[in-house]
């Protein structure tokens, strides 16, 4: 499998993860207090943010290497840059969806 195909597969997997987070799953029965995993959503979201941050740093390092003449892989640097851009855009969409859902919850009459 060449590097472009691998990048496409990685991007597809990441977009599917973002889509599933943004859409939410089917309604499930609430967990009992002894079954609940405290911070599991927070931990998942933090991992997502760290992955997007890693993509941003990788793209920045690749661009810097091309600019300094340390690398001739301009296509790879551009692919990393686009991958980081798509990841960040998807993260913003998830954040916006969560913010909208939170606002709706706050507006719900008791």
UniProtKB/TrEMBL annotation:
This is Flagellar hook-basal body complex protein FliE. Keywords: Bacterial flagellum, Cell projection, Cilium, Flagellum. GO terms for cellular component: bacterial-type flagellum basal body. It is found in: Bacterial flagellum basal body. One of its GO terms (molecular function) is cytoskeletal motor activity. InterPro entries: FliE (IPR001624). It comes from the Bacteria. Belongs to the FliE family. GO terms for biological process: bacterial-type flagellum-dependent cell motility.
């Amino acid at each position: 499998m060449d590097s472009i195909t691998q990048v496409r597969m990685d991007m597809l997997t990441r977009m599917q993860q973002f889509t599933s987070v943004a859409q939410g799953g089917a309604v499930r029965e609430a967990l009992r207090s002894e079954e609940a995993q405290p911070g599991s959503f927070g931990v998942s979201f933090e991992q997502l943010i760290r992955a997007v941050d890693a993509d941003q740093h990788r793209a920045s390092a690749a661009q810097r290497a091309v600019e300094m003449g340390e690398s001739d892989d301009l296509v790879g640097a551009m692919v990393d840059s686009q991958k980081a851009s798509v990841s960040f855009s998807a993260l913003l969409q998830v954040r916006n969806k969560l913010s909208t859902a939170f606002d709706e919850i706050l507006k719900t009459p008791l």
